[in-house]
């Protein structure tokens, strides 16, 4: 189950980027995963929930966007969305397809809250400030 290793790395990246951005709590994470990666969304979510316990990402929503396999045939110049491991050109039957998408695995963005200084937090208000989306990962 390589989802565990991937989520462990994901958490390290999130903690580093959150610290750089002054984020004290992560609310949601948007992850792009290509179909050719062979990762199971349910297992990713389960691992994420487990690794996020007692961290700034505890309770955060993991949004997984699956990226289809887009292929291109150099022989007939046709592009198509391919079944994960079927890369035969539907136009000419060629087998020299170039994979254009489907290998992705990256954090597209995450949303978090910056901590408010304690002396400026109104009575009864959340100790967290506005939500901020971080997209440059």
UniProtKB/TrEMBL annotation:
Annotated region described as Disordered, given as residue ranges: 118-137
Binding-site list for Ni(2+): 2
Organismal lineage: Bacteria, Pseudomonadati, Pseudomonadota, Alphaproteobacteria, Acetobacterales
Q: Where does Zn(2+) bind?
A: 73, 76, 89, 92
Q: Would you say which domain of life the source belongs to?
A: Bacteria
Gene Ontology process terms (BP): protein maturation
GO MF annotations, alphabetized: nickel cation binding; zinc ion binding
Name the UniProt record assigns to this protein = Hydrogenase maturation factor HypA
Q: Does the keyword Transmembrane apply?
A: no
Q: What does the similarity note say?
A: Belongs to the HypA/HybF family.
InterPro entries, sorted: Hydgase_Ni_incorp_HypA/HybF_CS, HypA/HybF
Q: What organism is this sequence from? A: Rhodovastum atsumiense
């Amino acid at each position: 189950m390589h989802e565990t290793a991937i989520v462990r790395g994901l958490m390290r990246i999130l903690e580093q980027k959150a610290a750089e951005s002054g984020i004290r709590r992560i609310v949601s994470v948007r992850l792009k995963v290509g179909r050719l990666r062979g990762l199971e969304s349910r297992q990713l979510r389960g691992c994420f929930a487990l690794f996020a316990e007692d961290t700034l990402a505890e309770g955060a929503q993991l949004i997984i966007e699956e990226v289809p396999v887009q292929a291109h045939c150099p022989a007939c110049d046709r592009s198509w969305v391919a079944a994960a491991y079927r890369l035969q050109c539907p136009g000419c039957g060629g087998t020299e397809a170039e994979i254009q998408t489907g290998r992705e695995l990256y954090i597209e963005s995450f949303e978090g809250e910056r901590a408010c200084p304690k002396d400026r937090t109104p009575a009864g208000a959340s100790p967290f400030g506005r939500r901020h989306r971080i997209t440059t990962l």
